Each structure stands twice: as structure tokens, then as C-alpha cells.
Amino acid sequence: MIALDIRRLAPLLGLIAALGLAACQGGDRDERPPQPGDVIVARVDGDPVWASDVKREAVAQGLIGEGEPFDPATDLFRRVLDEVIDQELLAREAERRGLDDSPLARQRLEAARKRILGDMLVETVVDDAISERAIEELYQEQRRLTEQSEEFRARMILVRTREEAEAVMTLLANGASFEALAAERSIDESTRFNGGDLDYFTVDTMPPAFGAALREARAGDTVGPFQAEGGWAILRVEDRRQEQPLSLEQARPQILRFLTYDQVRQLLERLRGRAEIEIVAEGDPLAVPDAPREPASAPATSETAASETPASATEGEADQPPAAQ
Q1: Cα separation, 295 vs 40, whole angstroms
Q2: pLDDT band of 1, cuts 50, 70, 90
């Protein structure tokens, strides 16, 4: 039995994949809505184009998220509708020219049919398994397991030399505004124009020098100068508190991704466990026979290096429950 490759699940997590070229349906026109609440938004030679067709195309292009509303009155809807109509016209012309009757067309249409059916199965399984209760239970479980760290809110002035930092400390001691000095003297472009505000952070997300400098600091303290990445830093501590856990609504998207992944993983494990799978292809059967081949010792190109890069952290994190932190 072939081992389950977790990275193969990533395309399924979109739930509904796009079929770029849809075959036209012959016979009598079916005016029944394909799903409850669906409406006809256009006709092509009398055949209906449904709002769900347009929304599916928008989701496939990443223009909207799955489950988001898509108002037919918007310019974006009209633009995607025009694209769906174009696809319909192209498919009809392909049929008129007999392109749908070739072995390659039949193979690709059958592959598209299987993909759509597979996506519908995944959607059904996920809808049946994921409930508000399941979301709430996983959220509460993660809150129990997650240790809350201490977090700081601070402002920073970063300068190039210790002498500049000492001069800033003198000005602060004489009553100068920290926010004004940050705008005037800090070289940290990401914070200088908002008064040096770093917002809330935990020390494990900052360079080690920050943790050492803030160990004994309290709200209202000015800390530094100390050497940091890119120069010398001075901090003013605005607040020190226990890290606030994510609310259920903030954690919901991550929880839904994990539960969806988990359901798809279990489904594929069951299906693969029942199937007899044998991999018979070796090499690339479609490669040009006389194409020159690079020796195995040849240095990797940028393309081959990219293809050998391990799965991204985002994919790898999908098999871990979300931390409600």
C-alpha cells in the first residue's frame, strides 16, 4: 500500500476546484436551480448561466473566499460573469469543431469530472463533520494546553551609535517627548513615524537583547541604551501583562483549516487502505527520447532547486491543532 503523502492534501483544502473549460450540456434546457436560492444571471443562446457558476469561478480565481457573499450588482461580479460567458462560447465552438471527440479531450474531461466529484465528496464529508460544537471543543482544548507568556508593549528609538543613544537618553531625562524623538532620530523606518510603537510582543519573538533588557522592566520605565540589530536601542515600556489568548472568532479560520485537513486526511487514509494501488511508471514516459540529459553531478538550477525544496511551513503546520494564544 502506498503511504499517504500529506502534501497531496493541499489542493483538496480549497474544497471546490475550477473547471476552466466546461462541456456544454445537450438536450432539453434544465431551468431547475442547481442549489437552493440560486438564480439565473444570464443566458447564452437561451441556456441559463447561474449565479453559482459565476461565484465558483470567482472562488477559483481567488477573487473571493469560499462562503463569502458575491453581490450580482457589483462590477467584479459582472467582470467574472463575462469570463464565464466567454468560457461557454469557447466550449461551444470547441464542440462545433469536434475537439471534444478526441482521445485527449475525453481524457481531460474525465479527469475534470473526477476532480469535481472528489471535491464534492470532500465538501460533503467536511460539512457533515464540522459543527459549532467541534469548533468550540477544539478551541477550549487548545486554551487548556497552551501556556500563556508575558507580553510587553513598548516604543523604540533606534540609532546608529552608542553616543547618539546617550544623547537621546539625556534629552529624555530633560523632558523631551519620546514620540517626537522617535520621529526625528530613529532609523527604524517601520516604527519611527508612529512614535516608535512596537505594539504588543513576547520576548521570544524579538532579538535576544530585548529579552535581557526587559527582564526587570515595569510599565513606565525607559530601558537602554543596549546594542540591538542595526544599532543601539532605547525602549519605553508602555505595558506589561499576561499574553491575551485569541478569541474564538479570531481562532476560527485556523480551527476550520485544521478540522478540514483532519477530515480529508482521515478520508484518504480509509480509501487508500481499501484500495489496491500499484505504481508502475518509472521516469518520464512523455519525455522527448533524444533530449540531452544533464549528468547527475550537474549543479541544480533555480527551477530544480525550487522543486526539491521541502513543503512550506504553512503546509506542514496543517497537521497540528491551532494554538489558541
Answers
A1: 58
A2: very low
DSSP 3-state assignment of 140? helix
The span from the CA of 179 to the CA of 234, in Å, is 12
φ/ψ of residue 6, rounded to 5: -60, -35
The β-bridge partners of 220 are none
d(CA 202, CA 194): 20
Write the single-letter amino acid at 309.
T
Q: What is the pLDDT of residues 87-107, one digit of tens each?
A: 999 999 999 999 989 899 999
Neighbours of 23 (CB within 10 A): 15
- pLDDT, tens only, 49-72: 999 999 989 988 989 887 788 999
279-293 confidence digits (pLDDT tens): 887 766 666 665 555
Residue 243, burial from CB neighbour count under 10 angstroms (0-12, 13-18, 19+)? middle
Q: Exposed/middle/buried for 236, CB within 10 Å: 0-12, 13-18, 19+?
A: buried
Is residue 204 within 8 A of residue 192, CB to CB? The reply is: no
Dihedral sign for Cα atoms in the order 293, 297, 299, 300: positive
Give the whole-angstrom CA distance, residue 312 versus residue 315. Answer: 5
pTM above 0.70, yes or no: no
